[in-house]
């Protein structure tokens, strides 16, 4: 809601978490959990396990910061969504499995949603 102050319109400062941010946080926790269990059970071949574990750890730490509306948590989840989008796109092209494109585009949509000004304005330092 905006009100007139002097000659410019000033928007009320919004507080609280948007529902989309909470949904993205839950999704990222599920993706990180699946990644960790996959790395533990040997689903990833070679050195991929050592790449998946730090990325999943970064995502989980970032999600807990995002749920507290911290800017560092938002930045970590934003980077995690972009990394996952690129990773799924890479897997879709190398493994020739079009199902990974769906995951890639979904994470790209999450990245674009988290980049919106409404989301950024609600984050605390």
TrEMBL record:
<feature type="transmembrane region" description="Helical">
    <location>
        <begin position="74"/>
        <end position="92"/>
    </location>
</feature>
<feature type="transmembrane region" description="Helical">
    <location>
        <begin position="21"/>
        <end position="44"/>
    </location>
</feature>
<keyword id="KW-1133">Transmembrane helix</keyword>
<keyword id="KW-0472">Membrane</keyword>
<feature type="transmembrane region" description="Helical">
    <location>
        <begin position="98"/>
        <end position="115"/>
    </location>
</feature>
<keyword id="KW-0812">Transmembrane</keyword>
<protein>
    <submittedName>
        <fullName>Uncharacterized protein</fullName>
    </submittedName>
</protein>
<feature type="transmembrane region" description="Helical">
    <location>
        <begin position="50"/>
        <end position="67"/>
    </location>
</feature>
């Amino acid at each position: 809601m905006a009100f007139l102050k002097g000659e410019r319109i000033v928007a009320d400062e919004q507080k609280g978490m948007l529902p989309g941010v909470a949904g993205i946080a839950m999704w990222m926790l599920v993706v990180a959990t699946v990644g960790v269990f996959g790395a533990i059970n040997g689903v990833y071949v070679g050195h991929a396990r050592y790449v998946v574990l730090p990325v999943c750890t970064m995502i989980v730490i970032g999600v807990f910061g995002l749920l507290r509306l911290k800017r560092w948590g938002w930045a970590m989840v934003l980077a995690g969504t972009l990394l996952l989008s690129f990773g799924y796109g890479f897997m879709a092209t190398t493994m020739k499995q079009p199902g990974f494109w769906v995951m890639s585009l979904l994470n790209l949509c999450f990245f674009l949603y988290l980049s919106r000004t409404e989301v950024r304005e609600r984050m605390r330092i």
